[in-house]
From TrEMBL:
It comes from the Eukaryota. This is Uncharacterized protein.
């Protein structure tokens, strides 16, 4: 039933490293709520916090490594709110944050992961994550973001995982990935993408896993995946792909290391001889839940590592 954090109540605990105040009735965090303590882990999940006051955590700047503020009512993060040079993990899931201004997270130079899921985020301003030069994981799933631009990705040079599933993304700007070319995993499941242009993934030569399942993709440009030389898993399930596989030659050219290709639940009716040319390393190909009526002969002959094809496909082609 704790409703307030008073510094005099915490001051006696001079050796305290972990403080969990979750599941209480705290409604505000004020400047100097926390006296100087050697705290490493601070959890204030599932309270009633509406606002954050700059300076709240300043006394913990030398030691705090993990801060969790999930399931509160926070609607706005003041600029330079977090002056925590040792913080590595910050979670603010299930709040009410709709927009993030530039420089909001300046002061978190050691941060490795940031989670702002299920907030209803609509807009990320240019430089929203500037200053997070060491961050490796950014999770923004279950929000209302509509596009990916280099403006809000500015400065994320060490980013390795970007999770954007369950948003409303319909556009990837041509130069979106200029500042985060170390990405190894990109999750765009359950968005509104209809087209994959030849510029959609430029610069992501270290990408290993790309998830674009459950979108509305019906068009894939000839060079959409060119340059993804490290890609091993490509998930395109439950889209509206049809003519891409039927009429294009080498839609997946350049994916020399691709091991998994998931195309189930699309609108593919026929597979041409060159549809999968260049996929010599492919081990798993899923074409289930399509309406495939024909497969040209020798379509899969170059894929020596392919482990299994559905009987339905085997009956339609001669390998």
């Amino acid at each position: 039933m704790i409703s307030d954090i008073l510094p005099e109540h915490l001051r006696p605990f001079q050796a305290l490293e972990t403080l969990d105040l979750s599941d209480n009735h705290i409604s505000a965090l004020r400047m100097a709520s926390f006296p100087p303590l050697p705290l490493k882990y601070l959890h204030i999940n599932n309270n009633r916090i509406v606002s954050l006051e700059p300076g709240t955590f300043d006394n913990l700047s030398n030691t705090l490594q993990v801060l969790k503020l999930n399931k509160n009512r926070i609607a706005f993060i003041p600029q330079k709110m977090f002056k925590l040079s040792h913080l590595q993990h910050l979670e603010m899931n299930r709040n009410k944050i709709k927009m993030i201004d530039g420089l909001t997270f300046q002061g978190l130079s050691a941060l490795k992961s940031l989670r702002i899921q299920r907030n209803g985020l609509v807009r990320l301003m240019d430089g929203a994550f500037w200053g997070l030069s060491n961050m490796e994981i950014l999770q923004l799933d279950h929000n209302n973001l509509t596009e990916i631009t280099k403006g809000w990705l500015y400065g994320l040079r060490m980013l390795q995982q970007l999770h954007l599933s369950q948003n409303a993304i319909s556009r990837i700007s041509p130069d979106a990935w200029e500042f985060c070319q170390k990405l190894s995993e990109l999750d765009l499941n359950y968005n509104h993408l209809a087209r994959l242009e030849d510029s959609s993934f430029v610069g992501l030569s270290l990408l290993v896993r790309l998830n674009i399942g459950n979108n509305k993709v019906s068009y894939i440009a000839d060079c959409a995946f060119r340059g993804l030389s490290s890609l091993q898993i490509l998930d395109l399930k439950n889209n509206e792909i049809s003519w891409t596989i039927e009429d294009m030659n080498g839609a997946f050219s350049g994916l020399d290391k691709l091991r998994w290709l998931l195309l189930q639940g699309n609108r593919i009716r026929s597979v041409t001889k060159k549809a999968f040319s260049g996929l010599d390393a492919l081990e798993h190909l899923d074409l289930s839940n399509n309406a495939i009526m024909s497969v040209q002969g020798n379509t899969f002959s170059q894929m020596k590592k392919l482990k299994r094809l559905p009987k339905m496909l085997l009956s339609l082609c001669s390998l």
